[in-house]
Amino acid sequence: MVELSSEQKEALEQQKDNCPFCKIVKGEIPAKKVFENDKLIGVLDINPSTNGHILLMPKEHYPIMPLIPPETFVDLVKTSKELSGCVKSSLLSQGTTIFVANGYAAGQQSTHFMLHIIPREEGDGLDNFSIKPGELPEEEIEKVRGALKQNISIMMRNHFQRIGKPLPDNMMPPQKVTKDQILQILEANPQVKTLLLEDTEKFKSMIPTNPQLQSLFAEVDIDELVAELGGGKKEAPKAEQGSEKKEEPVVEEKKEEPKQEPKKTKLEVLSEIIEKNPELVATIESNPEGALEMLRKSKYKDMLADLTLEDLTALIPKKKEVQEKKEDSGADLDTIENLFK
Fold first, then answer.
1. Counting CB atoms within 10 angstroms of each CB, which of 24, 211, 286, 320 has the fewest?
2. Could you tell me the pTM of the whole model?
C-alpha cells in the first residue's frame, strides 16, 4: 500500500468531502443498494451499460487501487466473484464483465475507486472492451521488461518482509542495481524522473523514507545521476567581451477587455442543471427536500444558496416535457454524478 504525505492526506480529505459516492455511503444521496457489509457497498449504476450493472466500491474513499488496504482489496475481489454469480443466476444472464478503470487515462471517471459488474448477453451492443494489438521494437520491450522485473522483485521482497516470511529464491532481486537498470526504471517512470530532475533535494529526502527508493538509490550518487541525465541548474551563458546587449524596445500589447456574460438567474441555472441531469426530475418529485439538500451541496451551491422548494418544483412539469422530447430524439445525457465534478 502506498504511503501518503501529510499534504496528500489533506488533499484526499478535501476530495472526500465532495465525492458523490461517499455521500451515497452516508445516505445523503439516494441510491439503489444491492449489497453492503462493513467495508463495501454495491449499488446499481444510475446510467447502466446493461440492466443490472452494479458498482461495487469500498465505503472508505480511495481514489485509485494502490491506496486500498490489502484486507479491503481481498474483500472487494471475493465479493465481486459472489455478486457476479448472483447476477448470472438472478438475471439469467449469459455472463458478466468485471471492469476496472484505474486512473484517468484508463477511463476512470470518478475519484472513488470501484469495480463494475456488468451482466452480458450475446448481441447486447457492448464491444467487450476489446484491446487492439500493437507492435513495439524489441529494445523498447526489453527496457520495460527490465524495469518491471526490478520493481516487482523489490515489491515482493518488501511484502514478504511485512508478513515475516523469507522471499522465495526465484524472486530474489539482484544484490546491486546497475546504473543501466536505474536509467531503464527512470525512463519507464517519467514522473519519478521529472521529480529527480526538477526537485533533486526533495527527491533525496524521500529516499530514506521509501523502501523502494532506498533499494534502488541508497548507493547511487544522485547528483552524478542528475548530471548524466542532463538535469540540475544550468548557468546562463556569459556575454562575450566587447559585446553589448542591445535592449529591444518594449511594445505593450493591448489587452482586449473580456466580454461580460450576463449573469444568470437561479432559475436559469436550475433549468440548465435539470437539462443536463434528467434523473433529477424523478428525485425532485419523489423526495424534493432531499433533492434540494443535494443541490445545495453540489458544485452549484453558491448560485443556488437561496433556492426554495417552490423554485425547485415549479420547473418540473415543463422540464418533464423537454426531457421526453430529448429521449425521443435519442440525445445523450449526463449523469447525476456530474453535479459534483
1. 286
2. 0.48
